[in-house]
Every structure is written in C-alpha cells, then in structure tokens.
Amino acid sequence: MDHKSPMLNDLFGIPWLDFNLSTSLMTIVSAVIVFFICFFATRNLQMKPKGFQNFMEWIVDFVRGIVSDTMDWKTGKVFLPLGLTLLVYIFISNMLGIMTVVVVDDYLWWKSPTSDAVVTLTLSATIVVLTHYYGVKVKGVKEYVKDYFRPVPFIFPFKIIEEFTNTMTLGLRLFGNIFAKEILLSLIIKLAFVATPVTFLAVIPMMAWQGFGLFIGAIQAFIFTMLTMVYMSHKVSSDH
C-alpha cells in the first residue's frame, strides 16, 4: 500500500477492484462544491444580474465563446452545459490542493483530485466516448464512418491512433501540471518545518507558488475545456 495513497483493496471480493480513498473523497468534495456554487448563483435569478449571478453569467458567456470559436453555434449550443460543467469542476478540483493539505497517519487525504492520473484519464476517456456518441447522433452512422476515410482511405489507421493519443494527451496534460504543482508545494511546506528561520523564509516562495498554482489551475481548466470542444467539433461539424 502506498503510504501517500490510502487504498481500499479487494473491494466486494474482487481482487482488481481497488479505490484510492483520498481521491474518491476529493472527487466527491469537488462535485459538492460545484453544486453549491451553481445553486447559490441561480436560486434568486434576476433580469438585471448582480453579485454572484453576474459572475456566473460571465462564466457562461466565456464558455459560449469557447464553443463558438470551435464550431458553428447552431451545432455547438447543445455542448454549452458540458463545457460549463468541465470548466467549473476542473478549476475547483485544481484549486483544492492549493488551499491546504491534510495528512493523517502519513496519508494525504486533502489534495486536488486532478493530481491523480486515474481521474484525469477517466475524464478524457469519457470526453472521447462522448465525441463518438454525438458524432453518430449528428451525422448518422454511415456519414460518421466515412469521415475516417477522408480525404484519402489510407489515413484510416492514423485516425484510429489519433483517438488513443487524444485520450492520453488530454488526460496526462492535466495530471502532469497539477501533480507537479502539488509536489513542489509539498516540498516548500516541508522546508517550512525544518527550522524557525527557514519557516519565515519559506512563506514568500509558498505564497508565490500558490499564486502561480492558481494561474496553472485556471489555464489547465481552460485548455481541457477548449480541447474538448475542438475534439467534439471534429466529430459533429461537416467542415472538418
């Protein structure tokens, strides 16, 4: 058992069915935070938005711009809820490991769920599956299959490989950036506990790295959402 990753092994008597408890916990925490953010932003809707509602409408417009930049709005408007959910959920998940860390019995319980490759690759695999689903739904099976042989038939094997590379790069890019961010932050925190003078000197780089981590988390949430819409556009738009 990894001392930094508490596992629930042999779940329900199935040897290969393992769960990382801290990752599962933080995934749920992220979902709950996103739910309450959306709930409080929309519970008292007004024609002239102000406060939190105004902020959420700005996020909606931002995601609308991402969708419009990647595909025709008439085709892409159905993906607005997906893009909004991804952007907010991934951003909140990225931020959790910046605020604080909770270690109990050498187990890291509070962290960014997106610092686990299983989470990010699951997200990316889900996105790729959705692109195929909507590609078939929008174009029909016959036209969708033909796209794999365009512009020339011998390109088919490369398009199959592309599906796997899209999944890997989409998930591992997010994982790598958030994991590296938390590793460096944990090293700075450990340095702060070495001695009192070091603790004082470690405050400045820790605050600086937390600020940079906020930037990284926001950028990675944007990139993941943007690439999701790009991949979706390739499947549902007729001009690709």
UniProtKB/TrEMBL annotation:
It is found in: Cell membrane; Membrane. GO terms for biological process: proton motive force-driven plasma membrane ATP synthesis. The keyword Iron-sulfur does not apply. One of its GO terms (cellular component) is plasma membrane. Keywords: ATP synthesis, Cell membrane, CF(0), Hydrogen ion transport, Ion transport, Membrane, Transmembrane, Transmembrane helix, Transport. GO terms for molecular function: proton-transporting ATP synthase activity, rotational mechanism. InterPro entries: ATP_syn_F0_a_bact/chloroplast, ATP_synth_F0_asu, ATP_synth_F0_asu_AS, F0_ATP_A_sf. The chain crosses the membrane at residues 20-41, 78-104, 116-136, 183-206, 212-232. It is a multi-pass membrane protein. Belongs to the ATPase A chain family. Key component of the proton channel; it plays a direct role in the translocation of protons across the membrane. This is ATP synthase subunit a.
